Amino acid sequence: MNVRTLCLAILNFGEATGYEIRKQSMDGDFSYFVDASFGAIYPALSRLTEEGLVECRDEVAPGKPARKVYSITPAGRRAFIEALHQPVAPDLFKSQFLLVATCAEYVEPRHMAELVAKRTAEMEKALADLRAARSDCDHPGSVWALDYGIACHEQCLDYLHRHGPQLVAIAGTALGAEAAE
């Protein structure tokens, strides 16, 4: 999957401006799927328009600059469906928190406790956001994906609650040895 497919996916649910597509892909319901920078979305929309997969119209409102509104074409919907049938790459998971946890013995225990508390709060917020999105959603595939995300976040949060103190206990165990050397 790539930014093109992400743009087609968003437009499959309804027309949108480039700004709205960017917002959905960075902070909205589609932010969980593919990394899409601001600089990648507009070139993708331009190419999709040139290829006839997306149409663009200018929308004028009194006292405001014209904005371009994109919509998917029948050819774009076919290309989107074809893209959905391609093999998908494994999920990517990168975490600076887990790097610090891996090297916990070199981290002051107080700092590690703060990191665990911050990560727990972040997970609780993400879980609340997913639950809120789920309560407003009636699209079957989206409901399934939201439920999957909720289950993953619940497991992470449970692990932090049960094993966070263990990580804090590991913290700093090598600092005394470092100072002695």
TrEMBL record:
> Any idea where the Transcription regulator PadR N-terminal domain is?
8-80
Name one matching Pfam family.
PadR
Q: Which PANTHER family match?
A: NEGATIVE TRANSCRIPTION REGULATOR PADR, TRANSCRIPTIONAL REGULATOR YQJI
Which protein are we looking at?
PadR family transcriptional regulator
